[in-house]
Structure formats: C-alpha cells, structure tokens
Hints:
The complex is a heterodimer of chains A (about 400) and B (about 160). Chain A is an all-alpha fold and about 400 residues long.
Amino acid sequence: xxxxxxxxxxxxxxxxxxxxxxxxxxxxxxxxxxxxxxxxxxxxxxxxxxxxxxxxxxxxxxxxxxxxxxxxxxxxxxxxxxxxxxxxxxxxxxxxxxxxxxxxxxxxxxxxxxxxxxxxxxxxxxxxxxxxxxxxxxxxxxxxxxxxxxxxxxxxxxxxxxxxxxxxxxxxxxxxxxxxxxxxxxxxxxxxxxxxxxxxxxxxxxxxxxxxxxxxxxxxxxxxxxxxxxxxxxxxxxxxxxxxxxxxxxxxxxxxxxxxxxxxxxxxxxxxxxxxxxxxxxxxxxxxxxxxxxxxxxxxxxxxxxxxxxxxxxxxxxxxxxxxxxxxxxxxxxxxxxxxxxxxxxxxxxxxxxxxxxxxxxxxxxxxxxxxxxxxxxxxxxxxxxxxxxxxxxxxxxx
Amino acid sequence: xxxxxxxxxxxxxxxxxxxxxxxxxxxxxxxxxxxxxxxxxxxxxxxxxxxxxxxxxxxxxxxxxxxxxxxxxxxxxxxxxxxxxxxxxxxxxxxxxxxxxxxxxxxxxxxxxxxxxxxxxxxxxxxxxxxxxxxxxxxxxxxxxxxxxxxxxxxxxxxxxx
Lengths: 399, 162
C-alpha cells in the first residue's frame, strides 16, 4: 500500500507473481548498477588515456573492456588485513553501509516507462515512493556513515583525518545539493520521481522546454557542482588527496572491502547522474520510433531505457572530462564555493522561482514579476557578498 | 492488523534493547551507533502508522544530521575513545530520574489516549501536512525557528574565544 503508492503493480492484490516481479526487478537493477560501474571504470580509464595520448587498458578482453572485472577478481582473492587497533565490528560494517545506501538511492530512479510483465502493469523502476526525493536525500545522508565509521574504526590517524575531511565536505555540500533539488520541486509540486518525470514527458520537440533544465537552469548548475562534490569526484576529490592523506578514509582497507568502497563511490556517481537526468533532463522521455507500433515492445520497453541510458552517459562523459582536465581545489576554495556561493545562490533561486510561481498562479503580470524578482534576487546576493569580510581582513583578524 | 502488531513489537523490542545499549556501552561511538538504531526504529514505527513523510524526515534529520554531528564532535574533540571506564557516581540518581520520566510519559499517554483507536485509511499526503504547518501552525513554527536561531548564535558566541 505505502511503498508503491504510484506503481500499478502494487495497487492490486499481492500474489506470488507480484513478489517475483519485485524480486526480479531488484536483482536486475543491482546487476545493472554493477555492470554499469564496471563499464564506467573502463570507460573512464580509456577516455582519460585518450585525452592524455596514452593507450590505457588494452589487454583484458577486446579493447581492455574486461579490465575492471579482472581487477575485481584480483581484489577478491587478496588478503584482507585488519589493523590491530581497529574497532573490528564497525570496521567490517562500514563498507556495507556505503554499498547499501549507494544501491538504495538508485532504487527510486525511473529507468523506463510503464510496461506489462506477466500480465501485470508496472513501472520500470524499483520503487515509486510518494516522497522519493526525500528518500534520496536521506540515503545520501546515511552514506556519510560509511565514510565516517570507516575512518574512525581503522584506528589510525590518516584514515581519521581523511574521514573528517570527507564528511565535512559532504555535509557542506549536502545543503546546496538539497536546495538545488528544492529549486525543481517548487516547480514540479511533487516529491515523487515518477511524477516529476511524467511532467517532462515527450510530446514533441516543444516538450524540451518542459525539461526542468530550462526553467530551472540555475538549480541545474548548482546541482551538478554539488553532486560532484557530494560524491567526492574531481575536482573535489580532496578526500583522496594522496600526497596529503595517503589514501583517505579507506587507507587501511584491503581486498574485497576496499573494492566495495570503490564500487559504492562509482555507484554514487552513476546514481547522481541518473538523478540529474530524472530531475532536469526528462528521465526516460524522448522521441519513440514512429515507424514501429506505439504499443510494441520496442517503443514501450526499449526506447525509454535507451534515452535514459543515453542521457546518463552524456553526463558521465562530463565527469570523466572533468577528471581529466581540472586540478584539485584547495580546501579553503572548496569551502568558499560551497558555503559562500552555492548555498546563497540556491536560496535566492528558490525564492525567485517561488515568487514567479505564485505570480503565475495568482495571475500577476509576469512581464513585471520576472525581471523584478530576478533583480531582487541579484540585489540580495550583492548585499550578502558585500557584507562578507574579504580574505585579507580575515587573515589579519586571525593573526 | 495482526502483521502490524507483530512488526510493532519486533521493532519496539529492538529499540528498547538498543536504548539500553546506548547507556550501557563504554564506547562513545558505539553509543552513538546504538542511538542510530533507536532513531531508525522510531522511523520504522512511523512507517507502520502510514506517516511516510515524517518517517523519512526522521531519518534525514536525526540519523543523517544530528547523530552525524555527534560523531563529528566525538572525532574532532579529545573526548575519550576506546573502551575506557566512563562510569561515575551518578548511576543511581540517573536511574531514578529516567524511571520518573518513563512513569510520567506513560501516565500521560494512557491518560490522553487510553484504549481509543486511531483509524488510518490512507497515508497522509505531504501537501496536507505542509499546508497544516504553514497555514494553521505558522506562528509556533516561526517561534521554534527563532529559538533554534538563538541557540545557533548562542553556540557561536560561546565558542568564539576573542
């Protein structure tokens, strides 16, 4: 009744077929994520190698495509050492927390449209929670535990420093991240990912304008920046700054436990790209093949999934590009960007779009409301920026 | 309804055991982790009551923020870590005080609800909840916000040395 309020699969009687479909979907999504991570790591290494005029992995399988699989098998058979001073139970638990939250966060992503499996109508989506976005935020909050407990339970200094740094970064950017999502929610008026995607459904080229990337462009930019910072990827990978921290929070982890952290990290990156696609780029929306039947398997099953995967891949290529081209930020730059720019901008964006939406509902003259609210927002930003002490003053004060 | 009752008792027993764990363990980080289980149990009870929004807000705020800040405080300060003897002479007074609290709360709840049944037809919609908070209860909401702001500013003033 509650878990799938929107999914037609769960609105009727729950019998064995329904349970089997849900289990099947869970396994399929998990396998999809695992394979996606494997391919992403290979893709990343290959593209960065190309950008640096190197060959990259080329031995395992055609074009080295099985490299990540080989690495995974190698890590699986390696010794798993546990430091003497480690808190053993927490040390064993931490990687699984990371993996679990990374996987659960993906469960609310609409991968495709509505399909029929064994006579039951269902969404190509693991769970359509009525408060899906809230669930996502909760999961990204819980993901912090994996990082924090891993660093603390290792019982040595570098992992602890790494985990404090990582969690401070993730906490800071969670604010901007959440506010960027609010920027979409005030326009969509719903917390369900399925409903958000439905509002951006494809009805022709004109529906490109309903994709929230256009009406909520500022929120989109803030979302992308803070999502990369949330997942600790370059240029925000201070968490793994090797020359400062040895290896970050997972320094003491070896073998399969290390592999699980690695997996969770890239799962998070894929989930974030999928969420960006869901919130801003229409999710599975896209033109279907007109010369095939609109109700046939290709147009109901394949095309939405194709568009979804294609959009996610464009964003993932963007992350690889960033990794290959941008140097790491300094810690104070990271904090400046998060606290002094992104959070402010996101707040102002929410206010401005709120005013515009109320104006539209109340029938105010939009030609006056839109520029006025934008001007007001810029004015607030200017006042806030002017009231901040600049760096030299701060340094003087501290000295 | 039987299934709900069984689930309630399983979660409730897990919550009580973890709550005892919070005060019994001598490791501060373990205590915080036991607290996470208690709070997650409360969230699970909310889900049983079809209050999904409140449940996930509970996870988001209490588990995702409050306990994380506890852990942050424990890691950044020089608080005792590891299995140290953290007991002190306040064992008995603390026991009496918590017993009194349990008694008061139980009496209050029984007095207020007794045997009355709350019928839940459908999950509460988030939009209903938000319009209640921001229309009916806007004044208490703002009052609490200002209280929190005051606490925040107070903490900064106390923590700043100069």
